[in-house]
Amino acid sequence: MSFDCVVIGGGAAGMMAAIQCKKNNMQTVIVEHTAKLGTKILKTGNGKCNFSNTFMDKEMYQNNNADYAMNIINRFNVDDTIYFFEDLSVYKKERNGYLYPRSEMAASVALALTGKIQELDIPVYFETGVKRIDRAADEYVLRLEGAKTNTIKTKTVILACGSAASPSSGSDGSGYKLVKKLGIKVVKPLPALTALESDKKNMKLAAGVRAFGNVKIMAAGREISQDTGEIQFTDYGISGIPVFQVSRFAVRALDSGMKVEAYVDVAADIKENELVSMIKDAVATRKHQSVSESLSGIFNKKLVMMICKDIGIEGNSSASCVNDDICQKLARQMKSLCYNITGYKGNDYAQVCQGGVDVSELNGNLESVNNPGIFFAGEITDIDGRCGGYNLQWAWSSGAVAAAAAYEYCNG
Ligand SMILES: Cc1cc2nc3c(=O)[nH]c(=O)nc-3n(C[C@H](O)[C@H](O)[C@H](O)COP(=O)(O)OP(=O)(O)OC[C@H]3O[C@@H](n4cnc5c(N)ncnc54)[C@H](O)[C@@H]3O)c2cc1C
Q: Could you tell me the pLDDT band of residue 412, with boundaries at 50, 70 and 90?
């Protein structure tokens, strides 16, 4: 059996790539090693699928490959993505630039894509993997394993196997093995957009609190990243969107053996001297209550309990005992809670991986320089974006651009 393009992996990037190939009349097949297409899409955006963002800037892609990412995204951009989905009757809902389907159901995005694949009559080899990819004259020979065990020939291959993040959705890191067999370098994949673990004393006292604040990551004493938003305090460390945003830097630093600390400022919107005045006023006004009660109009009580313990007083003690020195210490601690970072939540928890196919091995068309006709799309590449729709946008853009380049390769 002979194809123009074999797409390996039926996630966001692979489905986009296969649809674009078939629209160009290329004989296309999807090889998917699970029994379903688009499983990860169902998990996105808390089940609502934040599929893109109207604010697009290279700062949204967090490593040195941001320019490479933007060159691809500019060729199939946010407007192209909106138009593509409108054409499938998936209309957008925008919230502060974040784009969701109007239905606010991730399943509606997956269903629209699988519907188009059916309509275009694109065959899908489910529960089938690829054992080997060999070059033979001007085509590739793929040996399949699993439900299909035959050998197929193709002019081009688009590898869209995802990463190692969220292995229950099928992206189990097996794509990297195929890439390495082709002699292509893979930058060590590590979790990104994940929570950070700590051995901070007293942290369990604040478990369950969500508070607006700033988180700053220090590695070997140097600031490497910071972000602001709703921080979640947990019994193992810290989580929430701002922690996700900075986590890739903390994870990479930990992996290279550095000492990593997170400094959390839960009063990021006010200066320390203003905070001291607020605390002094509160403990004076409510001196008949406990410290944590008296400050509960400023901070969550559980957070105050932890902070009191950190500075060596009991949150249940009387506010009347809090002198100016203690007010100062409380304010300082609230503005600079130190979490010694000892680890991070792994691939089962992480939303994406950093690392993957080294883009220095690719030309500007997502094609392997040393394996002409082999293209890459989606998270398998060493591109990772911030939370906010940037990873799915990368999947749509790279899928569409890889497909267009595969068409050029076949017809150029
Ligand atoms: C909980 C969660 C929430 C998220 N929320 C958002 C969000 O709101 N917005 C956003 O932009 N991003 C979000 N992301 C990230 C986004 O989902 C991914 O970046 C995107 O889905 C990657 O698409 P992909 O096609 O590259 O990979 P995947 O979607 O992982 O698809 C890869 C496919 O390839 C298949 N496969 C893997 N290996 C092989 C193999 N060897 N042979 C055959 N098939 C194989 C897999 O089974 C899978 O179907 C979220 C991720 C998670 C886990």
A: confident
